[in-house]
Amino acid sequence: MKLLLSVLLLFSCCIVQAQSSDSMKVKLNKTTFHREDTLTFNCSFTAFAKDSILAATIQVWIENIETNQIWKFRYPMLNGLSSGALFIKNTIPAGNYAVNFLLQKEFLAINGQIRDYKIRDKSIDFFMLIKNHAEYMDELNPSVYGSFHLPNLLFQDTAFFVFSYHKNNE
After folding, report:
1. Is 154 inside a domain boundary?
2. What is the CATH classification number for the domain harbouring 14?
3. Is residue 127 part of a domain?
4. Are residues 119 and 35 in the same domain?
5. Do 9 and 90 fall into the same domain?
């Protein structure tokens, strides 16, 4: 779903809601936005339950139409609902902006391929270090070709990933 925002010294937008039952509906807190305002949104996806989607990600892309500069944000969606808020800095350039709301039917996932993977290494340890100093550790078992998939990762802001071969104590 694409919404058009225009910034001259202010943002203005029109809200588009589709009629289809499998459409995502987006509501904004107001129709005109100035610098230093907060753009608040609520998204709902009515087909969420019938599609058996337990978790999803709303991707919000804001694009300056003249320069094609894009800012990308992600918000979790649970039970078909998601909301978020974006502060419009006073340094944002004047211009016309398109705001896109995209539904990704899972949380952030990482797909990878280990170079020079040796099947004897069977498992890999990974650490996810999150900006607020929380950490998550787990083990993954790559395929015989060294490829792996880490599904449904949920964290705020920024995360740093470290992968290492599993050390056997034999």
Report:
1. yes
2. 2.60.40
3. yes
4. no
5. yes
Number of Cβ within a 10 Å radius of residue 138: 10
Please give the model's pTM, rounded to 2 decimal places.
0.60
Average pLDDT over residues 11-20: 38
Averaged pLDDT of the chain: 76
Give the model's pLDDT for residue 38.
92
Is 130 part of a structural domain of the chain? yes
Q: For residue 66, with 0-12 CB atoms within 10 Å meaning exposed, 13-18 middle and 19 or more buried, which class applies?
A: exposed
Confidence of residue 40 (pLDDT cuts 50, 70, 90): very high
Three-class DSSP labels, the chain: CEEEEEECCEEEECCCCCCCCCCEEEEECCCEEECCCEEEEEEEECCCCCCCCCEEEEEEEEEECCCCCEEEEEEEEECCEEEEEEECCCCCCCEEEEEEEEEECCCEEEEEECCCCCHHHCCEEEEEEECCCCEEEEEECCCCCCEEEEEEECCCCCEEEEEEECCCCC
